[in-house]
């Protein structure tokens, strides 16, 4: 029986010894709850008590933000004490991936009411408020 993996090798060798690296396909994370920009806007307009957690870097927040509390993702595990686990938290980043990581981290620490702004601040700019700068 062969020990070969079903996945193709990560690179192809071309003539002359040059390699082309192939990116591994990542499946979308289905375990992370997400909220669409339009739905978040509607809930905020209706006065829902949501905590917007912006997990971008400070320079990104200065360029463009929709409010919320800034805790950069690398600092999140050290600053959990700033969050109320009983309050619904929506993680916000530029385009979504850091928000997903933030939600996964919060879930790991027992936070139940957490979701990611799908598409991040770019989705907010595209669908809710065009004055929010995309960068």
What does this molecule look like?
By secondary structure, this protein is α/β, with parallel strands linked by helices. 26% of the residues lie in helices and 18% in strands. The protein is built from four helices and seven strands, in the order βββαβαββαβα. A five-stranded parallel sheet has the order 3-7-6-4-5. It has a two-stranded antiparallel ribbon with strand order 1-2. A hairpin with a 5-residue loop joins strand 1 and strand 2. The protein is globular, with a radius of gyration of 19 Å. The model is unreliable at 1-5, 7-13 and 16-29 (pLDDT under 50).
Quick one: biggest sheet? 5 strands, parallel
**Overall average pLDDT:** 86
Percent helix: 25-40%
User: Can you name the CATH architecture?
Assistant: 3-Layer(aba) Sandwich
Query: How many beta-strand elements?
Result: 7
Question: Whole-Å distance between the termini?
Answer: 51 Å
Q: Over the alpha carbons, how many angstroms does the gyration radius reach?
A: 19 Å
Oligomeric grouping of the chains: single chain
Outline the low-pLDDT stretches.
Answer: 1-5, 7-13, 16-29
- Overall body shape: globular
H/E order of the elements? EEEHEHEEHEH
Tally of separate domains: 1
Strand content: 15-25%
The neighbouring-strand order within the major sheet is 3-7-6-4-5
Looking at CATH, the homologous superfamily is Rhodanese-like domain
At the first level of CATH, what is the class?
Answer: Alpha Beta
